[in-house]
Amino acid sequence: MTVLVAGASGFLGAEVCRLAVAIGERVVGTYHSGAVEIGGVEAHRLDVTDRAAVRDLVARVRPTVVIGTPYRYGDWAVTADGAAHIAYAAAEVGARLVHISSDALHAGRSEPYGDDEPPTPIFAYGAAKAAAETAVRVIDPAAALVRTSLILGERSKQIQLCRDALAGRAALFTDELRCPIDVVDLAGAVLELAGSDYAGTLNVAGPDAVSRAELGLLVARREGLDPTLLKTTTGAEVGVVRPTEVRLDSIRATALLRTRLRGVRELLAV
Question: Distance of CA 171 to CAs 179, 232, 245, Å?
């Protein structure tokens, strides 16, 4: 099987590449900035906003599976148009498509969101992710669309943000709840879906809903840092327009997948 990972230089894309190489697949990864530094990956520079370039690369690689992970916060062309270009190119060669989406497309509420609930974006990035999903579903109804949450891991931006808040260099919101997931768990789930015929949206997130501030306290406990040093604020205080409580119900994914989706409290246990 040939796996093409669009966005292989990203945090999740790189982990998908590592796992795919480890199980003996031919892996082709794309990057725009940075580099793909994973042994066994055939790397190609690609601008996903260039529709012709995307079609040309996919036609040359002839992948069995395409994993679409690229995004750029605040960049509609990459996040929305790029997803559409990848979906179109994958459909042209008959490749199985797994598109990575986000909980950012929900408005936020106290009740968990099910897998099939329509997007209700309230800020630009969420709208771009919603548009990406719409394009993918129109182009390829058989594609799997993975809605996920904060992605954790030793090199994740989320963990580094917690360390920065504990050092007074940043502040964590007390009013934003998410369901963090480990990057290895998410990558494993993505590759499982690549080998399945699951179609449509699927929530793939951890079972624990925590605020960003609570995440910071878990990091402090694991790393032996003083939790009283944690700097916090709220979105309302700083004027950030973003969803507050977004809980993803991942019961369907838990029943469907062999990969265990661990909660953040287990991941960051001392």
Answer: 19, 5, 18
